Amino acid sequence: MTYQATNLAGQAASPERGLVVLMAMAGLALAGLVALDTGARGVALLALGGVLGAVFLGFQYGFASAWRRFLVAGEAIGLAAHFLLIGLCALVFLTAPSLGLAAAGSVAPVSVSLVIGAFIFGIGMQLANGCGSGVLFSFGGGSGRMMVALPFFVFGSLLGSFLLPAALEWGSLGQVPIAVAGNAVATTGINLALIALAGGGFFWLARRRGEMMPRRLIAGTVIIAVLCWLVFALSGHPWGVTFGFTLWGAKIASALGVTVENFAFWQWPGPRRALEHSVLADVSSLMDFGMVLGAGIMAAVSGGLRRQDWPPVRQLAGAALGGVLMGIGARLGFGCNIGAFLAGIASGSLHGWIWFAMAMAGSWVGIRTRPSFGLAV
Amino acid sequence: MARITPKFVYLIVLLAGLGLAAGDHLTSRSMAGLGAPSDLGNACAPCGAPCTE
């Protein structure tokens, strides 16, 4: 996590007005199409995706670099912020019925595929220099690296969708909620205590090193938490990024003649519905489009697009490999840092904690692989 | 690669992607509401993760 907006603040803003207008018009056209079919709710979720993209880019809020700094240098303040974000989300996710929200959290199976998928994802996010949300908002911001990583992420997640049904046969304990006490207050309390313990532990480690949590980081965390609450309330479930990539891959493959619908994953009711309908009728896909446009407008406003350059070819190869690994890992591991780590833990699901541990282990391996692709450890 | 700037590729990819999305939307069957895999049976997370016991 970078605590200062390197390309959006600290430099004189030099807007690319033509691009701002172009992207705003594209966003309005998309919103018009969405409004015709899915009404105000669809438009609101598209807009929320846009705001999330702008906020992530503006605050340079990410996961991969914060985890890398923790593993390489012991800097834990970024992880403390992540658990602050999770705790804020959990306040709403775990108490949804009491708040009158017709929404449910994300509780995926604890399985062998989860362990393997999260580990693979962790490697990939260090090679690509970004996780699911990071790839998306950086792509939206015009990053050359992510222009390579994103299509490979899409391809990998399609492969992952083909592999997941077989991978689930390797062993699963089913869904494992933490603290099923039949008492919502106790369940919420136990989960919040665990999140506070983890976040407090990382904060304690950071303070021992003399690290402070910058106000900018706190502000970004709180804003993103509020946006996650809104997504949860409007969509009925926590925010997820990578299913949209999988759907894009399936749509493209179908257009190229691949009989995607014959694969087991795409015969499950949810994915089948998504495949049969518009890419703008799936919440994850719709918000992904919004996120790209939001980040794009933010970058154009700040003049960030014209400052982008291509990384060396070896780094682009790392981005491609990282994209494929993240794609496969996201499907086998039931999501990325947003859909599995944040949403899983904040929903009181054991799978989120296991995802965190395994993705951290994968990140350790990925960091040691980075020099092979010309990337600094 | 040196002559083709990231910004040029970005704009091509962005406009092509949005065009494809609009095309897919206009040629797909209409529906009255947004959805996610977890809205239907056999999925307990937005990513499509199946419910298993």
What does this entry look like structurally?
The complex is a heterodimer of chains A (377) and B (53). By secondary structure, chain A is mainly alpha-helical. Helices cover 68% and strands 2% of the residues of chain A. Chain A has 14 helices and two strands, in the order H-H-H-E-H-H-H-E-H-H-H-H-H-H-H-H. Chain A has a two-stranded antiparallel sheet. In chain A, helix 1 (17-59) packs across helix 8 (215-235), helix 9 (242-255) packs across helix 11 and helix 13 (337-346) runs antiparallel to helix 14. Chain B is built from one helix and no strands. Chains A and B meet through helix 1, helix 6, strand 2, helix 9 and helix 10 of A and helix 1 of B.
Q: Say how many strands of chain B there are.
A: 0
- The rounded distance between the terminal residues' Cα atoms of chain B is 51 Å
Principal-axes geometry of chain B comes out as elongated
**Which secondary-structure class do the elements of chain B indicate?**
mainly alpha
Labels describing this entry:
heterodimer; A: 377 residues; mainly alpha; two-stranded antiparallel ribbon; 14 helices; globular; disordered N terminus; B: 53 residues; 1 helix; 0% strand
